[in-house]
Write a structure and sequence with these properties.
By secondary structure, this protein is of the alpha/beta class. Helices cover 38% and strands 18% of the residues. Strands 7-6-5-4-3-2-1-8 form an 8-stranded parallel sheet. It is globular and about 50 Å long.
């Protein structure tokens, strides 16, 4: 049996996303699928764009920067979805128009020095492990206030990854509760970046506006180089 192509996986997952949205009474067109291509070559993105992909996500700056340079002519919106080091924040914002992983004051301070505006999500850490990406729930309000006071940032909403030791539906319900902190400060910041390859259905049921899907579309990741 022939191996399923990335184009076929994209078409299949897109249908599954639409079905999951309709199952909970949502409009599939209100959900943005960000295809995460970590470790995959730029040529794969070329195939996916031909199949209709419009949003790409990367989590490693050096890799993302190189892919963007190679594919700059393609009609893509670039999203940064990995943990963002403050010393690379400005460089990332040069090619990514949406950053999903704003999680600390130093990153916001670096992005404040940009000469253009970028859109951003505040990443929330649901694990309790300070070594993981994301702001602690206790500090969410203060970080949101800093983002809102930064003219170069447009706050879209919040992002989170469901912890491995918690059911995704429970994790995403918690995100919805924490989102109220941000909405009390910025009622327009309604977007939710939740749901990945293994839990996008739960993300959709919880109100995800952005899904970050990698292997379900791109296939198994090749070894890191």
């Amino acid at each position: 049996m022939a191996t399923e192509s990335a184009t076929s996986r994209w078409q299949r997952v897109s249908e599954e996303i639409a079905d999951a949205a309709l199952d909970v009474g949502r409009d599939p067109s209100a959900i943005t699928t960000v295809v995460v291509t970590k470790f995959h070559p730029a040529s794969l993105l070329g195939e996916l764009v031909a199949a209709g992909v419009e949003h790409v996500g990367e989590s490693r700056h050096q890799e993302a920067q190189a892919k963007h340079a190679e594919l700059a002519d393609l009609p893509l919106t670039w999203h940064f979805v990995g943990q963002l080091q403050s010393n690379k924040a400005r460089a990332v914002a040069e090619y990514c128009s949406v950053i999903h992983s704003i999680d600390r004051s130093s990153v916001v301070s670096k992005l404040a020095t940009l000469e253009h505006k970028v859109e951003g999500f505040i990443e929330i850490n649901l694990t309790g492990d300070p070594g993981r990406g994301g702001v602690s729930p206790d500090d969410l309000g203060a970080l949101a206030e800093q983002v809102l006071a930064t003219p170069t940032l447009s706050l879209r909403g919040v992002m989170a990854v469901a912890p491995q030791d918690q059911a995704p539906a429970e994790a995403f319900a918690r995100v919805r509760q924490l989102q109220k902190i941000v909405l009390s400060l910025a009622p327009e910041a309604t977007d939710l970046s939740i749901g990945m390859s293994g839990d996008f259905r739960e993300g959709i049921a919880a109100g995800a506006t952005h899904l970050r899907i990698g292997t379900a579309i791109t296939g198994k990741r090749p070894p890191a180089t």
